[in-house]
Amino acid sequence: MTIRFVLMVNKQGQTRLAQYYEYLTLEERRALEGEIVRKCLARTEQQCSFVEHRNYKVVYRRYASLFFLVGVDNDENELAILEFIHLLVETMDRHFGNVCELDIMFHLEKAHFMLEEMVMNGCIVETSKSNILTPIQLMEKSS
Amino acid sequence: MALSGMRGLSVFISDVRNCQNKDQERLRVDKELGNIRTRFKNEKGLTPYEKKKYVWKMLYIHMLGYDVDFGHMEAVSLISAPKYPEKQVGYIVTSCLLNENHDFLRLAINTVRNDIIGRNETFQCLALTMVGNIGGREFAESLAPDVQKLIISSSCRPLVRKKAALCLLRLYRKNPDVVNIDGWADRMAQLLDERDLGVLTSSMSLLVALVSNNHEAYWSSLPKCVKILERLARNQDIPQEYTYYGIPSPWLQVKTMRALQYFPTVEDPNTRRSLFEVLQRILMGTDVVKNVNKNNASHAVLFEALSLVMHLDAEKEMMSQCVALLGKFIAVREPNIRYLGLENMTRMLMVADVQDIIKRHQAQIITSLKDSDISIRRRALDLLYGMCDVSNAKDIVEELLQYLSSSDFAMREELSLKAAILAEKFAPDLSWYVDVILQLIDKAGDFISDDIWFRVVQFVTNNEDLQPYAAAKAREYIDKPAIHETMVKVSAYLLGEHGHLLARRPGCSPKEIFNAIHEKLPTVTMPTIPILLSTYAKILMHTQPPDLELQNQIWSIFHKFESCIDVEIQQRAVEYFALSSKGAALADVLAEMPKFPERQSSLIKKAEDIETDTAEQSAIKLRSQQQVSNALVVTDQRPVNGMTPDVPLTLVKVASTNSKEDLYPEDHISNGENGTVTEVDPQLPSADLLSDLLGPLAIEGPPDAVQSGQSSLSGLEGISDAVDSAAIVPIEGQINAVQPIGSIHERFHTLCFKDSGVLYEDPHIQIGVKAEWRAHQGRLVLFLGNKNTSPLVSVQALILPPSHLKMELSLVPETIPPRAQVQCPLEVVNLRPSRDVAVLDFSYSFGTSLVNIKLRLPAVLNKFLQPLSLSMEEFFPQWKSLSGPPLKLQEVVRGVRPLPLLEMANLFNNCRLMVCPGLDQNPNNLVASTTFYSESMHAMLCLVRIETDPADRTQLRMTVATGDPTLTFELKEFIKEQLVDIPVMSSVPAMAPASSLPINPVSLSNDPGAILAGLL
Question: Highest taxon of the source (chain A) (predicted)?
Fold first, then answer.
């Protein structure tokens, strides 16, 4: 019951953030991102948010131009992950205010900090937005 | 837009963004990499700020998918920066760029430890997070006690402790042998008294890992979990920050219910009552609401509650509530809920006796099979497959057939395979089965594997009543224009064997049948021609009185193929021609095929393979295959609700009619796999015929030839054990043996060239292997995964190492909890060169049966090789200095599997013998070099030269040279084994290949020795 990776990819298939919780080589990552992004982009709004790929599931959600894809084990609770994506987006929204693709792109490090506060080793570690954002505020204060 | 203080980084990102195409992007990235490289070279001038900026650029480039093979040191060095911003970057980027085995990580251990035991909690958090993400063995060794202290420290704030809990989880999962968790049961229970929801969220993940390994030790945590669940479900004392759309942390609720599923039952009546109250509240109190997020979150909790109820096997009433809910879900329009409804219904089939209730929803499920969403279609297919039994097989299979023509390519293979399996398992009558398979081939020929038509041939051969019907059907199909080649094969085969049974029907004279088949000859490819030739020979034999005109026609065809380039075709043409001119002898040689021994359907193995992408089989993923395997298990073993199916396919019937003994020793060979599986079932023989339908070949082989309980290392001892391994030890008639899923031999073979994958699988357990090899040492981790919802007990693993390997297996727990995976590391040291193979003697009990398997371990000679590329100047002096035996051995190898040179080179490279192109002037030769590592001789150079003969690919000359006589010999023999190795083929119902089968009355006797003699 673990998260294997979190990807943020835009409509053109460009990766905006990639965080893996198991080590993959560059080639494996490229192949994986290519395959699942293609699969997910081809799906319509009326279809469900889960795609089975190889031996795991991808739970995905689209916000404007950006897709959030989370790879999980087959025994993961899909809806919980789906809402976890939304929690991540809301957290970024609280920090950036009306978060958009460009925010994530140009503040890659902050997006990483937030994710790191939320997921560790593929397990959810924190779901309180103010707790998640504390270290970032700390960093902003100190710089 | 406020940029992130790092101007250079923002400029670079927008540059990349403005690139028009991939080439421009690459150019820009290369330029930046060059820039960073130069800056890092004179590191002295770099400020921490600059370092930070460059390291982020590296991460960005890495994310774009470019190789960043330098600068890792700089990232790691930032970890020891004194200031928070730099340190933070160092930790985060290090955990993104490096993996746990990276050497640089070792350099940071001290800094990391100081941060962890230091007083600065923000530093503690950073360090714990990184170790929690990528910490390897060395981290576990030096940090585990510190981390454990932090988790339970009363002076630590929650923000540190939650990270420490997940950090420990990582260290423990990766190296259970290093991390000492004695006494953690109490601490875990204490930890669950925590009020902070962040700490609880991560502690719950830790608990899941600990409990899945040994639930008995953690009983005291169970009531605490129920308390937490109550607190959440009643929304007592939950801070606003942890409430998501009005729902108290849905993620913690889900995780807690998941942890509870690792305990087999809840015994304490008070705890049980509280738990059921909460579950009841969730089941009844979840309504569909407008807000999508709230709706999803509450349904996430609801679905987890459903799983928990199924697991606890609750009172009938609650179970029927669940089925009713699921029935509602599979009919809603909302695709997510429908998907999950179908998925959970399939799961429910496995745990509860709800078949009949679920059948009421059949029409609804079939509608989902036609949904526009492939994810939903797959779930519907799985569910239909799982719920199929004799009563609804006809409807379901026909639905699948109908859907086949319109389904998308991605699903056709799976669909046709599942239809074939269901048709075989639940056929109400055999002619229907034949109809289904022929329709399948007709509609989806491209997706029908050979196994499927082999199987139908086996059934027809074994059931005389069926033969005229099958032949007539084949006659119908062969008349159609443009039929699929597989249809040509199966029709030709059936008509050759049984066409004479139709003789009196119109259009079915030998001549007419021959013409109909022969019309297809120009349309088929090489592999089909031998089948057609055999058919012609059989037609000729059955034509009584002989028809001279037909005979001449057929003879001229044989004559034409006598000079065919394909050896198989040529041989058949020559032999059939010679035989058919012998007259009466022909009838003996080409007699009707004897019955096939019953065996497990190879289709089921196939069904497994489809789901399992071999490239993806890392051990972490083992559990994910559970779903499919379980589906098969359940349909195999489900009782038939008192129905005695009128299915003439049963083993027993075949057993009583099958008076002839096994004529086909090659079937034994194909079953003569890596190991043997023996299950001793003390229960009375089951009366359930259906569950044995696809069961083992309990009737095969005379009982005195096999001893019960025996399991020998057949793979090692060669064919002498083939009979044992094929006949799965019948004791007094029937027995339910556990059948391995997939070929053990093939799995072993694959693992000889790969370092991770599945070594063994059956319906209860899956054993995966992940190995790392360094010089003469290796570390193999066995992943023992229990696929059931109840524990496997009396687990025993014993290593039988050959004398040249030193092996140490860490302790294997006696019990594997339900659905849990246990890792057992195995250290290997190679002492000397040898081709002997280590064997794992593994046993476990499930329910009342004991299963014992012997598996070869892929710690083979080539794992201790390190490929080495040599130049001409290096190679030749070495080659010359090793002159003659015993250091240099030469042998002409015959009977080589014919391979194109390129494939042979690949084979060598896969064996870690590096082919050095261009060293040998002759393009037909291969030269390879490698280093062999063992404790006795450290590194030893090995040189190999292969000279092939383009005119005859089945022979070659091989020269092997090393500095040690034993090594030379062993390596030469090893390579030979690879070259002449015949992969285990799925058993082809070969049509009496006249040449190779000595039709000798002796070989028909009951003595397995005689069978073997015939073989040799």
Answer: Eukaryota
